[in-house]
């Protein structure tokens, strides 16, 4: 979502994205979400678990932003963009065009990157749905086996 928003943001200077850093920026948020959901999926949700889950998600999102901003290859000054401040920070950003673009272009065409991110996101969603269905089927099977054993 954030990366697509950054692609839609038009600047007066060329902006390229480093493919490796852009891909790497997804990992902290995915790992934080996994850890937080793992904590919250337990039978009882306590306040400490809720707090730890929130901190993990916040840290993952923060790391994703900083790595993602490092993936931008351009001469720009960015405000700190966190949670509810994204749009304000983007509106308040100042970008200076010096007339000389000296950054080394390591990135790829943004269209290729967008389609790559769409493909990876879609794949993760499909795998998540399949995994959830398998877990549900396993639970139903286990419950039916337990019910059959109790009836005997």
From TrEMBL:
Listed GO CC annotations: membrane
Membrane spanning stretches: 15-37, 49-82, 88-106, 113-137
Record keywords: Membrane, Transmembrane, Transmembrane helix
All residue ranges annotated as the MHYT domain in the record: 1-137
InterPro entries, per the entry: MHYT_dom
Record's protein name: NO-binding membrane sensor protein with MHYT domain
Organism: Aliidiomarina maris
């Amino acid at each position: 979502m954030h990366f697509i928003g950054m692609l839609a943001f038009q600047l007066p200077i060329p902006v390229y994205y480093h493919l490796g850093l852009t891909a790497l920026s997804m990992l902290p948020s995915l790992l934080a979400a996994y850890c937080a959901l793992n904590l919250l999926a337990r039978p009882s949700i306590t306040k400490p678990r809720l707090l730890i889950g929130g901190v993990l998600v916040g840290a993952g999102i923060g790391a994703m932003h900083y790595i993602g901003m490092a993936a931008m290859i351009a001469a720009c000054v960015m405000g700190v963009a966190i949670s509810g401040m994204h749009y304000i920070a983007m509106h308040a950003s100042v970008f200076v065009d010096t007339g000389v673009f000296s950054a080394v272009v390591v990135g790829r065409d943004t269209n290729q990157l967008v389609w790559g991110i769409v493909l990876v996101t879609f794949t993760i969603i499909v795998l998540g749905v399949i995994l959830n269905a398998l877990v549900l089927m396993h639970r139903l099977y286990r419950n039916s086996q337990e019910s059959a054993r109790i009836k005997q």
